[in-house]
Amino acid sequence: MTKKIAVLLPRSDMFPRLALDFLNGLKLSLQQKVAQDEIEFIIESIGTATDASVLKTTEKLLLQNHIDLTIGFCGSNILPEFTTLFKNYKKPLIHVGLGASVLKDENVNPYVLHHTLNVWQSAYTAASFAVRKFGKKVAILSSAYDGGYHISASFVEGLTAEGGEVVGYFVNPMDYKQMNFSERISEIEKVEPDVILAAFSYKEGGTMFKALSKSSLNGNVPILTIPLMTDESFNTENYNIQLVQSFATWSFADETEEMQYFNSEYYTSYDEQPTVISLLGFEVGLTILKVLEDEEKIPRNLSEALKNKKIKTPRGQIQYDEMNQAIAPNMLLRDFKYENSKYVNKVSKKVEFSIPKEVIHKFKTLPDPGWHNPYICT
């Protein structure tokens, strides 16, 4: 019997092919075990995923199209209403995103899975590692956009947990192109940090790398960034930047069989390298396949269907925790290197994924992030 899957996809200036990349990854994993005529996709564009039209579109799909499963991005400002909609209709949802904001209890119910790439946890891990490895004096650099989620808070919590001190907090203006980068570099140099934590993405990240590479900080002060700042699809020119690392739950340069298989199959199918959005779609497809191992149809109660089950993915064997959010087994310490005319994030160390429960509890009490649109959808 044909399964109807609705996919709600936002637009993104940073990932202009977000919808296509996600669908390519999703279809690539599903085609391993599901015939093409067994699934009917119903695709809806939802803008920035932040207004009531998302709820209206979703409810219409559920009522008129007999949807078996919905996959969708959603802004934090309407996420409680979005997830409650599926709870009320007792319909399954896989809510997706990169994971820059902490999941709140109000968004948890048995019908909803939250599949992310654990970005805020990566920021926390990077900050705590930075203090232990390099020293207690920390300078935090951030864009107005990237710092607007729970990323900056994760930096602060991570470094203070290890006895670190913020000696300077520097936030770029929204129109960063008008900023005097020489003055900003001088401000950073004056506080004499042991280590820099940086939260930027897309073109602004590259601009910041260029400014740092021309300063006395380059090669003398280590830099720990969020995963998106060193993303291979954004960084295509050599900045001559040194001592840059990041933590993430993935690396396309990871030499595991699962990641290399994903890279190879994706390139063979689409004649291009995968992106983080492709990876997200691929993993959602693997989650659906895991559900269908024991079920003829997609069950309503996704939480129960995946309880205690591990899913083999390019990031390792992920599992859904008590809040129904996907958790990868490891955090990867990645060195940002320019090799063979391109940047790669080479894995230098793997550490067990672990965020203290008291930290998670504290984050749940924080206000919702300043930006409503899903990170990194603009």
Walk me through this protein's architecture.
It is a single chain. The chain has 378 residues and is an alpha/beta fold. The chain has 11 helices and 15 strands. The protein has a 7-stranded mixed sheet with strand order 7-6-8-9-10-14-15, sandwiched between helices. Strands 2-1-3-4-5 form a 5-stranded parallel sheet, with helices on both faces. A 3-stranded antiparallel sheet has the order 11-12-13, with helices on one face. Helix 1 runs parallel beside helix 9, helix 2 (52-64) runs parallel beside helix 3 and helix 4 runs parallel beside helix 5 (151-161). It is globular, with a radius of gyration of 20 Å. The mean pLDDT is 94. Belongs to the leucine-binding protein family.
Give a quick summary of the entry.
With 378 residues, this protein is an alpha/beta fold.
Write the layout of secondary structure elements.
Layout: E1 3-9, H1 18-30, E2 39-45, H2 52-64, E3 69-72, H3 79-89, E4 93-96, E5 112-115, H4 119-134, E6 137-142, H5 151-161, E7 165-171, H6 181-190, E8 195-199, H7 202-213, E9 223-225, E10 244-248, H8 257-270, H9 276-292, H10 302-305, E11 310-313, E12 316-320, E13 326-327, E14 330-339, E15 342-352, H11 357-364
Parallel strand pairs: 1-2, 1-3, 3-4, 4-5, 6-7, 6-8, 8-9, 9-10
Antiparallel strand pairs: 10-14, 11-12, 12-13, 14-15
Helix pairs in contact: 1-9, 2-3, 4-5
Family: Belongs to the leucine-binding protein family.
Domain Leucine-binding protein: 4-328
Protein name: ABC transporter substrate-binding protein
